[in-house]
Amino acid sequence: MNFKILSVLLVAALLAACGGSQESRVVQGNRDGVLHFGNGAEPQGLDPHIVTGVPEHHILQALFEGLVLKNPNTLEVEPAVASSWEVSEDGRTYVFNLREDARWSNGDPITAEDFRWSWERALNPALGSLYNYMFFPIVNAEAFATGQITDFSQVGVSVLDEYTLQVNLTDPTPYFLQLLDHYSMFPVHRATLETFGDPSNRLTRWAREGNMVSNGPFELAEWVVNSHIRVNKSEIYWDKDAIRLNAIVFYPTENIVTEERMFRDGQLHRTQEVPLDKIPGYLRDEPHLIRVDPWLGTYFYMVNTTRPPFNDVRVRKALAMSIDRDLLVSTVMEGIVEPAYALVPPATLGYNPPQLFEYDPEQAKVLLAEAGYPNGSGFPAFDILYNTQESHRKVAEALQQMWNRSLNIGARLLNQEWQVYLDSQSSMNYQVSRRGWIGDYVDPHSFLGMYISNGGNNNTGFTSERYDQIVMQEAPAATTREERYELFYEAESILMEQMPIIPIYTYSTKHLVHPSLKGVPSNIMDYYNYKYVYLEADE
Amino acid sequence: MWRFIGFRALQAIPVILVVITVTFFLVRAAPGGPFASEKAVSEQVRAALEAQYNLDQPMLQQYFTYLSDLMRGDLGPTFRYPGRDVSEMIMQGLPVTAELGLYALLVAVVIGILAGVFASLKPNTLQDYIPMSFSMVGICMPSFLLGPLLVLVFSIWLGWLPVSGWGNTPGDKILPSLTLGAMYAAYISRLSRSGMLEVLSQDYLRTARAKGLPEHVVIMKHALRGGLLPVISYLGPAFAGLLSGSFVVETIFQIPGLGRFYVQAAFNRDYTMILGTTVFLATLIVTFNLLSDILAAWLNPRLRYQFRK
Q1: Which residue of B41, B92, B111 is in closest CB contact with A130?
Q2: What is the 3-state secondary structure (H, E, C) of A240-267?
Q3: N or C: which end of chain B has fewer CB within 10 A?
Q4: Nearest to B101, CA basis, from B22, B202, B182, B181
């Protein structure tokens, strides 16, 4: 049998020999201008008003284009379908001038009416768009999305002429332009959608290969589920000369270990993730291949403030103060993230969050004693809930130890499968739970909006009238950025004073990037603008 | 014979009905749902989504609607991938998984039978111990370990074979087939060894040898036919197992097969996709069991005779 196995392997080796001499996909791609993009997961679909998620975002960004784009270096907006715009004195009225040479992939011109119709569709309650809240700064958008009004002409979107679109906002929303290149606000092609059925039906096939009409720098060429999606450069895109890639191939790489192997094998130009245990090796031996950058997201624990003993703010503070974040970050997290002491990540477009506490196990002990548990005696055992994943388990174990050592209290680890975990959180059936949040747009509101009383994402029992007032009324009405940030600072101070959440670290993005991939600067949104991307092999 | 086949086919119907019913209610009883997300979903949006998939109807009505759709061969739309039907997804993944399964079965049968027969010829000698120890290792070695090991050796160190893919680069089908087939090869080698040992001690073989037939004729013509019966009856379930159990290998090698859809569907609570795949695989397993029963009956005169009566 050994002989037989050997012969099978020999055949394998022979077959491989012909494969082995071939050049890798990356080398081929560099020559042909084809970017091989490890994309994390199979996209749910490519209808910009239905899908949610990062893999979908990467592809839609290539296929569609909104009114504006962002500069990947600064994250400031740049003209896209809108060649220019005017903002009124009070910051509530935007007039967008659309470029007349912008075209759908079938040659139709892109008009202001295309945007009006697309936005009406995105807000149609029957469609059930999960991202409809991106439109809510617009007058009456929320009322339309929730069915309180049914006449879209009451919503603050109006067509002034074929190439001029006016948008009226309820409050001056400084980040409104930032929202416009989110895929939920992309235009879709009315005639195409109507060909394939009712546009408010999620189940039609308009966004499939061969059916889709889009308006971005690339067109959908091939889609093999769970294998790859290929988009080819559009020859009709208004700024096609700025596009230097001929095609992008997106691979669903949900197994990050395989993804790393594919990268090493020259199959990918970039990966969506890097396995945690491979990071130190890359940083040490091949630092030119790995990119670790701060991300607009926070990893934290939330505490159910409705249950004893966690209904006592002193207990929550004791927990927060007895976590040695520097130690956690340097050991468990391999030094690739930054410790966090507040909810909003630092340097969110100039906003810096308050730091109201630090690592102080002695003070933590005092607080716990004041709450009635001197040296942890009488403190009930409690569960740390997290969704089943190796890295979350490691963090939970570290905190379990730190709390035991500093406060002499016993935490148990409780892991649940993703869906069960979500259910436990939303029904508040937990004591302490791991949670992560990635901002939708670069503004503190994207984080602080979560903790308004009874907000859908609150799930901690935290309520504060003053906090609600700032986040929902005062900050939106603020006229200058300084005033606005001061208000947010106050709100976040209230939040951290009450501590329904225990910040742990600021997320970072981790990618392996082949040296030939250029024009992908680091930014906290992990944002790609394909106009800037090109491939250039170093000789 | 026909009575036997008809009888077994009739038995299959209640089995599949039970599978459908249990799966239908179990997935709906599981916490979470197809629309659960880390970001809260507003009431209106949830209601709109449920209406699009008829989840707003009473559970029993949903059940009977599903059954009647199924009768017409309609497995419904997927929840996870709007605009795609379950049957479309299955038909996309099945050819890939079937091809992988077939190659793996080939690996299993060739290696397994050769090793088993070889071992049985000189029982309790090194010729027996060495292949059987390998097969023990093969049975114990999970594919999530074997796969990466093979990749490490043949792709990363030697650079002979691609690390992943299916039909994209030449040779990328070899490692997945080996990985998936290895465990089955190990089983088959043990089955064929014990089958052969039993047969080799039978009178008719002694007769064959006494007639002066050369040893290779005795083994190839007389012993194999009886000795491989257990292997034949194992092939049906093995192939069904290969089809339904290829998830790990598909994930390791980034293969767009049915197994990945199936497991992802369970994590996503994609009700229709879970049901559709389960029903499909259940039917497949029942069919393959039936086929291997028929094959075994055809090869084994005693069984055939039983049903002739």
Answers
A1: B41
A2: HHHCCCCEEEEECCCCHHHHHHHHHCCC
A3: C
A4: B181
Enumerate the residues of chain B whose CB falls inside 8 A of the CB of residue A146.
42, 44
C-alpha span between B25 and B270 (Å, rounded): 13
pLDDT at B239: 84
Contact A298, A343 (CB under 8 A): yes
List, in sequence order, every residue forming a beta bridge with A248; answer none if it has no partner: A35, A231
- 3-class SS at A304? coil
Predicted TM-score (pTM) of the model is 0.89
- A303 close to A500: Cβ distance less than 8 angstroms: yes
What type of residue is B276? G
| Chain A / chain B CB contacts < 8 angstroms | 188
pLDDT digits (tens, 9 = 90+) for A23-67: 889 999 999 999 999 999 899 999 999 998 899 999 999 999 999
pLDDT digits (tens, 9 = 90+) for B232-248: 888 888 888 888 778 88
| Cβ contact, residue pair A420, B32, below 8 Å | yes
Q: For residue B255, which of B115, B121, B147 has the smallest C-alpha distance?
A: B147
DSSP chain B: -HHHHHHHHHHHHHHHHHHHHHHHHHHHHSSS-TT--SS---HHHHHHHHHHTTTTS-HHHHHHHHHHHHHTT---B-SSSTT-BHHHHHHHHHHHHHHHHHHHHHHHHHHHHHHHHHHHHSTTSHHHHHHHHHHHHHHHS-HHHHHHHHIIIIIIIS--S-SS-SSSSTTTTHHHHHHHHHHHHHHHHHHHHHHHHHHHTSHHHHHHHHTT--HHHIIIIIIHHHHTHHHHHHHHHHHHHHHHT-HHHHHHTT---HHHHHHHHHHHT-HHHHHHHHHHHHHHHHHHHHHHHHHHHHH-HHHHHHHH-
**Inter-chain touch B39–A129, beta carbons under 8 Å:** no
- What is the distance in angstroms between the Cα of B283 and the nearest Cα belonging to chain A? 24
**Structure tokens belonging to residue A350:** 């100039």
Banded pLDDT at B30 (limits 50, 70, 90): confident
DSSP-derived 3-state class of residue A375? helix
Q: In chain A, what residues touch B44 (CB-CB under 8 Å)? A: 125, 128, 145-147
Q: What is the ipTM of this complex?
A: 0.84
Residue A18 has pLDDT above 70, yes or no: no
Contact B189 A262 (CB under 8 A): no
User: Which residues have CB under 8 Å from B166's CB, separation 6+?
Assistant: A227, B96, B100, B172, B173, B176, B253, B254, B255, B256, B257
Please indicate whether, in this complex, the C-beta atoms of A456 and B46 are within 8 angstroms of each other: no
Cross-chain Cβ contact B81/A45 below 8 Å: yes
Instruction: Yes or no: say if A82 and A148 are a contact pair by the CB < 8 Å rule.
Output: no
Are A47 and B155 inside 8 Å of each other by CB? no
